[in-house]
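Sharing a chain and its predicted structure for anyone who wants a worked example. Both blocks are below, sequence first, tokens second.
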Amino acid sequence: MDTEQHRPLRSTVAILSRGDAAARADATPQNSRFVRVFEALAAIGIEARPVIYDETFADAVRDQLLSVDGVLVWVDPIHQGKTRADLDPLLRDVAARGPWVSAHPDVILKMGVKDVLYRTRHLGWGADTHRYDTAASFRAEFPSRLRANGPRVLKQNRGNGGQGVWKVEALSNADTMVRVLHAQRGSLPENMPLDGFLARCEPYFGWGGCIIDQAFQPRLPDGMIRCYMSGAKVAGFGHQLIKALIPPPPEGVDSPEAQPGPRIMHGPDAPQFQALRRSIEDEWTPRMVETLDIDEASLPVIWDADFLYGPTDAAGADTYVLCEINASSCFAIPEEAPAAIARTVKCRILQTQGTSSGR
């Protein structure tokens, strides 16, 4: 038997990210910010190819993606004014023609948008959460909720980098005035008429379809825990003292005191996060996929769930409140995550090959 002719073909995946024509021409695994992912995939025998996307050369990108077994996507929902409005249909078309795509746009629309906070509010990570589907319902319901329940956080359905996320407080001396603070870095608190703020938010219904309203979490200064997931398993943690939605110090928005602290990365076995790990692996993720009607095998190869500290429970233990899931472009990642990504990719390839051979 000629073993050379019967050796299995090497599996290939594309690592897709946004860039211009120059970045596309110069792209290599070695100069990519995902170099450690390339290395982890190569270590288990998977060839990964860098693919740079922009709307101006989308047809060439489509051809590249159709030539591989799978596609790993790292493209933000909003980047320098550009959205995924053209990319998502392209990825759906590619996936329908054979290669698997992670994260698939339809999976992102279920779990990687702020609406997940409302749809999964009954899980142990939930909080006081509401959804406004129209500008009219927003205007009718939000003002009374704000006055009755204290500070709120409003979030447009799709976005990143704090875009479209606001802390809103009613001013005690005027029913019609509010203090708002945008989550984007460098923002300052602003006192303004409530009607004016509601009008400012109305465009969010056009892009994302809804606005999500959560109670403000007073323990925000204790930091955010980012739980990195590969499929249904924890790949690591990151803890960061964030400054979004916290008024800047007297030194100003550009001062060192106003900058967020570094995100301290930890592996999946970090002892201080094991209670959170058990909850997300054993309870919350299984219940999330059931609630959202997601096949577990379609979970992104890398995604993260961002948690704020909630009130301590009766025993004095921490609780956690989900504030966001990132499924479109989860990066930077802990040093343990590339190997986890590679293992998950290998499983997906084997599943795809098994499905194909069973037809």
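Comments welcome. Confidence is low (pLDDT under 50) at residues 1-8.
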